[in-house]
Structure formats: C-alpha cells, structure tokens
Specification:
- The protein contains 5 helices and 6 strands; from the N terminus they run ααββαββββαα.
- With 141 residues, it is of the alpha+beta class.
- It has a single domain (3-135), classed as Nuclear Transport Factor 2, Chain: A.
- Strand 5 and strand 6 form a beta hairpin.
- The model has no long low-confidence stretch (mean pLDDT 92).
Length: 141
C-alpha cells in the first residue's frame, strides 16, 4: 500500500471512532495489532499495552467508559512508507472525576498490507493523570 492509501485508512479509522463504530474500526487492524497507551493503569484506566483485536476492543470499551469527548480532532497527517504520524487535539470530561482532560497528542501507526499493525499514543501523561485523580489523590499529588 502507498502512503496515500495508508493515510486514507487511518482517516477512515478516526471517522469510525468518532461514530462509535468499533466493530468496523477493528476491521482496519491486523489480527495481531498492538496498541501502546502511555501512563499508569492505576490512574488512567485505559493505559497499557493491548495485543490482538480482542484486547484492542477492550481498550476502546475502557476509553469510552472513562472519557466523554467533547472534541477529538486529528489535524495533521505525516506519512512515510509504512509509517504514519498524526498530530491532533482532544478535550473531554473524565467521567469518574468530572475534570477536563485537554491535550495535544501524537499517534504513531505502522501499517502492514493496508491495515494498522501497531499504534502508539504520545500524550501529556501528567495532564491526563491530573484529570483522572480523585480529589483525595490530588491533595496528595
């Protein structure tokens, strides 16, 4: 697949995510896809490493349960060969704390035969942890 096709696949993935269409989103991934989300799962419930479509589906369920996104905007796509980086912005309310998690991010994709084989998120983990901490935890922070 060429860079333009890879970019279109990732754009389609973001559109499906925006609609909440996770079953069709998973069809854009290889069977052994790997997702890497930074942070501590003790604070940010969806942080961790997920392997395979079933685990990635679990990631999306945890993400949905954790954050109500007001904005989720992929803004710039940079493709070279089988690699793609997307720069974007998101703003959402953490369901457990009511705090806003607002940040710029980068998503790195490795494509294989037109599908996503690896995804890694680069986030402001300190901002995320603050948004997810309870009031009691914030007093200790």
């Amino acid at each position: 697949m060429n860079e333009q096709q890879n970019t279109q696949t990732v754009q389609e993935g973001y559109a499906l995510f925006g609609k909440g269409d996770i079953p069709n989103l998973l069809n854009l991934y290889t069977d052994d896809v790997e997702f890497i989300i930074p942070g501590s799962a003790e604070t940010v419930p969806f942080a961790g490493v997920y392997r395979g479509k079933e685990q990635v589906a679990t990631f999306f369920a945890k993400l949905h349960d954790a954050i109500d996104y007001e904005r989720f905007e992929p803004q710039n796509y940079i493709a070279q060969g089988d690699r793609l980086v997307v720069l974007g912005f998101s703003k959402g309310k953490v369901r457990a704390t009511g705090r806003t998690d607002e940040e710029e991010w980068a998503h790195s994709f490795i494509m294989q035969d037109g599908k996503v084989a690896r995804f890694q998120a680069y986030l402001d983990t300190e901002a995320s942890m603050k948004a997810f901490r309870s009031n009691r935890d914030m007093a200790e922070f």
